[in-house]
């Protein structure tokens, strides 16, 4: 009887101890509720939502206008491709109706305005950073940039030339070449997330002012516009002014691109090698992830952070194979997992990456181990809360993707709930069917290394 009891106690300890209760929460619930109470959502007369995060006594103000359009949506015709969208957002802040370039520069310098636009894959933004004393002088400029950018021929040519120069410079960066070549086999031709260097070099010189203005008229559409504000202005005053400048925007009736297809794994076409006479090999690995709206999105992001730490411990610290090794997940309508490294020993590094992935898939972490990594992972969340610009961007992204800002504030709570079993389950679901690209000297690498890497990652 005693021996049976001892055996049962041993079994109990094996089953229960690794899944013991997690440590104290990353953030106090009162702090989360306070942030939520300071955040309100309003609507302009044209139904554009405005999410306003109040920061009492702050002299700084950020207003971000987000277009739920990105480069993926620009695949809408023979003369429209992703660079049209990128060039448009590069050109918009340069001049606008009532604000020629010289006046724009003069006012930005006088009042220290931060005016910028950024084109993303699925969400693009234009922002104003200022202080309370000058916001009413900056708001009309932001409105003009969003609604009536000049897009004159001179600026179009300037940005075309700049874009071409950027792409040409990327051709000489082996790290970016590794990514470009991998994308060809990862996404396949025609995927809305991908346009290769060669296509860009061919298409950019053909972009015209007419194409850009036509594209702007399509994406300036109230049903796909969102505004976020972080500051301390009185709510009624703020919303009234926003209504004045952005309320007149109508509905262009332009239909967004359809759903984004998941990249299809092809075992026979999952390794690509590029010959470059360079002393360092550049390795890039990609695999299918999960979307931002997936219930496990927070756990997946945490898994990638854990993988990043484990790769660093093994490849950088223990084996000294690379000082540049990393992993992360891009989470949009679909997810893309990324691993990268530069090394003078590609075979050993590829083996180490595969070994770390295998360990994470098999290992059951304890709560204590996960708590260490959770603290590191949560740092990014807390940094997001510190800057007005980063907070405004995070708020509007959550409003667009989740139709609520709660997922932003609830991230630490969702992270608290991630268990060792969740991580192991996700690792086995995601860390497989790896595609790999290597840029290095042809004489110092064998194709069978990449083929073996892929073969052993299929299941």
Features:
single chain, 459 residues, alpha+beta, six-stranded mixed beta sheet, five-stranded mixed beta sheet, 16% strand
Radius of gyration: 25 Å
- Give me the number of helical elements: 18
N-to-C series of helices and strands: HHEEEHHEEHHHHHEHEEHEEHHHHHHEH
- Rough shape? globular
Concise synopsis of the structure shown:
With 459 residues, the protein is an alpha+beta fold. Helices cover 49% and strands 16% of the residues.
Q: Your description of this structure?
A:
49% of the residues lie in helices and 16% in strands. The protein has helices spanning 2-16, 29-37, 82-91, 101-111, 135-147, 153-170, 174-186, 197-203, 209-219, 235-246, 297-318, 346-362, 367-386, 388-402, 406-409, 411-416, 420-430, 447-455, and strands at residues 39-43, 49-54, 60-67, 114-118, 124-131, 225-231, 271-275, 281-288, 324-331, 335-343, 435-440. It has a six-stranded mixed sheet, with helices on both faces. The radius of gyration is 25 Å and the shape is globular.
Write the layout of secondary structure elements.
Layout: H1 2-16, H2 29-37, E1 39-43, E2 49-54, E3 60-67, H3 82-91, H4 101-111, E4 114-118, E5 124-131, H5 135-147, H6 153-170, H7 174-186, H8 197-203, H9 209-219, E6 225-231, H10 235-246, E7 271-275, E8 281-288, H11 297-318, E9 324-331, E10 335-343, H12 346-362, H13 367-386, H14 388-402, H15 406-409, H16 411-416, H17 420-430, E11 435-440, H18 447-455
Parallel strand pairs: 2-6, 7-11
Antiparallel strand pairs: 1-2, 3-5, 3-6, 4-5, 8-10, 8-11, 9-10
Helix pairs in contact: 3-6, 3-9, 5-10, 11-12, 11-13, 11-17, 12-17, 13-14
């Amino acid at each position: 009887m005693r021996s049976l009891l001892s055996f049962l106690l041993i079994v109990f300890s094996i089953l229960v101890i690794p899944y013991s209760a997690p440590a104290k929460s990353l953030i106090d619930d009162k702090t989360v509720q306070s942030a939520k109470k300071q955040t309100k959502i309003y609507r302009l007369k044209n139904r554009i939502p405005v999410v306003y995060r109040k920061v009492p006594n702050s002299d700084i103000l950020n207003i971000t206008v987000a277009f739920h359009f990105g480069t993926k949506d620009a695949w809408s015709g023979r003369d429209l491709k992703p660079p049209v969208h990128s060039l448009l957002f590069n050109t918009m802040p340069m001049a606008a109706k009532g604000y020629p370039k010289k006046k724009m520069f003069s006012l930005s310098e006088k009042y220290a305005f931060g005016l910028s636009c950024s084109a993303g894959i699925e969400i693009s933004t234009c922002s104003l950073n200022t202080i309370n004393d000058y916001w009413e002088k900056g708001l009309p400029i932001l409105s003009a940039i969003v609604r009536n950018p000049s897009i004159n021929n001179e600026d179009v040519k300037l940005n075309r030339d700049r874009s071409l120069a950027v792409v040409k410079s990327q051709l000489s960066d082996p790290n970016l070449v590794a990514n470009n070549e991998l994308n060809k086999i990862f996404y396949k031709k025609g995927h809305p997330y991908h346009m290769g260097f060669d296509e860009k070099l061919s298409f950019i010189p053909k972009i015209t002012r007419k194409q850009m203005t036509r594209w702007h008229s399509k994406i300036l559409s109230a049903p796909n516009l969102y505004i976020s504000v972080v500051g301390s202005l009185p709510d009624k005053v703020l919303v009234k002014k926003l209504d004045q400048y952005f309320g007149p925007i109508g509905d262009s009736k332009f239909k967004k691109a359809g759903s984004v297809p998941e990249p299809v794994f092809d075992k026979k076409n999952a390794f690509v090698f590029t010959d470059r006479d360079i002393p360092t090999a550049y390795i890039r690995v990609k695999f299918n992830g999960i979307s931002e709206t997936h219930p496990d999105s927070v756990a997946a992001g945490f898994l990638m952070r854990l993988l990043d730490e484990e790769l660093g411990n093994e490849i950088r610290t223990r084996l000294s194979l690379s000082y540049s090794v990393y992993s992360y997940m891009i989470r949009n309508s679909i997810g893309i997992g990324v691993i990268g490294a530069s090394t003078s020993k590609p075979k050993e590094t590829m083996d180490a990456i595969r070994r770390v992935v295998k360990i994470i898939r098999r290992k059951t972490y304890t709560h204590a181990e996960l708590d260490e990594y959770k603290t590191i992972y949560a740092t990014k969340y807390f940094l997001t809360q510190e800057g007005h610009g980063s907070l405004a961007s995070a708020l509007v992204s959550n409003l667009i993707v989740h139709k609520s800002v709660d997922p932003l504030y609830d991230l630490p709570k969702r992270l608290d709930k991630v268990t060792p079993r969740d991580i192991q389950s996700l690792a086995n679901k995601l860390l497989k069917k790896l595609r790999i690209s290597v840029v290095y000297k042809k004489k110092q690498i064998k194709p069978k290394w990449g083929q073996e890497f892929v073969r052993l990652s299929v299941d």
